[in-house]
Amino acid sequence: MLKYESKRFVEKYGLDINFDIPNTMNVDGLIFLAALAKTFPENGTVVEAGSLYGSTAYVFAKNAPSNTVYCIDPWKHEPWMTKWMGDGTPKAPYLSPEAFKAYVYGLDNIVPIHGYSPDAYTREGEIDVFFEDSTHSDPVFTQNMNRFCPLIKPGGLLCGDDFGDAFPDVKKGALRVHDDWGLPPSSVRGSVWAFCKSGGPTLGERLGNVFEEFFDMSLSLETGETVGTAGFGFAVKEVSTGVTQITHPDAFDFVLRLGGKDVAASDHGVVTLAADTLIDEIVYEPRYKNLTPIADFTLRGADGTRVWSKRTGQHASSTNEPGVLTNLRACFRVA
User: Fold this and answer.
1) How far apart are CA 301 and CA 47, in angstroms?
2) Is 79 exposed, middle or buried, given 0-12, 13-18 or 19+ CB atoms closer than 10 A?
3) Are residues 239 and 143 in the same domain?
4) pLDDT tens by residue, 95-111
5) Same-domain status, 302 and 198
6) Residue 54 and residue 194 share a domain
7) DSSP reduced 3-state for 275
8) Residues 6 or more apart whose Cβ sits within 8 Å of residue 87
9) Number of Cβ within a 10 Å radius of residue 37
10) Kind and range of the H or E run holding 238
11) Domain housing 111
12) Structural domain total, the chain
């Protein structure tokens, strides 16, 4: 069952997701992919490596109906699938090309390619999107990156699933391409990672031009511990000690001030500060046209007592004594 805020987001923006198709992805990941698909260019080309039963292919095909979605998979049943299917809801049939076609029946913009990626893909020409969800290990992950990254158009999208410590080759390989492309911090939702090739809109700009609210945020402490995250523009939990890093990739830049003087400023949505930094003002600078930030802030003094809590628009100014930032909640809406 979808959590309230996820359900509200899906319904508000008309995202088409078939949760009855067996899959290994969490709900937030599927919602993220559906939102990304809404940003695909008209008549684009999408290539997916590792389609399984068609859950993500369905999301791409339904939310970007003018796009052609090429799905590469051997559709060969593996032992791990039986164990997973026994625990999953809904339970899945024996994996086969026929099972895949049954789940995506009627979606004429899906083109199955039976075989192993990358060798099975023999088409030439640029693509708009590559989604990697195949073996999750090298050498295949790197082979897919080497084959498909050069085909992605400037401004095109590279994305995949299972970014995390459970699949170190995925995490390492994705970050390697990210750094090679010289990109600012990019988004991971659930375990889905995504970033855009240079030469076009950033990921944040793509999402910001389609959705009224779609932003990630996290707060970190001096120890490096992430103490709270926000998805779909909703709250980060309050913490008892000062925040030392605020991360909000691609959404906005902001300045923290004390007595009218800048004490810290973000770079591509990331700001780092000492845990005991006192501030009395936060100023937002949205990067997207027609967007206005809406945010709540909490400051606490050295003794832990609340100094200031305010709901605000573009500026947040304290009329009381300065404090240490312990909470930040922000979302953006179309002005």
Assistant:
1) 52
2) exposed
3) no
4) 899 999 999 999 999 99
5) no
6) yes
7) coil
8) none
9) 26
10) none
11) 4-208
12) 2
**CB-based contacts of 33: which residues, under 8 Å, 6+ apart?**
25, 56, 59, 60, 131, 159, 192
Answer yes or no: do 85 and 193 share one domain. yes
Residue 199 shares a structural domain with residue 225: no
pLDDT in tens, 317-335: 444 567 766 655 544 433 3
Q: Please indicate, yes or no, whether residues 175 and 241 belong to a single structural domain of this protein.
A: no
Whole-number Å distance between alpha carbons of 299 and 305: 9
Considering only CA atoms, which of 122, 138, 250 is closest in space to residue 196? 250
Distance separating alpha carbons of residues 18 and 11, to the nearest angstrom: 13
Judge if pTM exceeds 0.85: no
- The position carrying tokens 């039963």 is 53
User: In which residue are the tokens 């625990």 written?
Assistant: 87
pLDDT digits 0-9 by tens, 251-297: 556 777 777 788 877 766 666 777 677 777 777 665 544 445 555 55
| Integer Cα distance of 59 and 90 in angstroms | 17
Tell me: do 42 and 155 sit in the same domain: yes
pLDDT in tens, 20-31: 888 888 787 888
Same domain, 87 and 152: yes
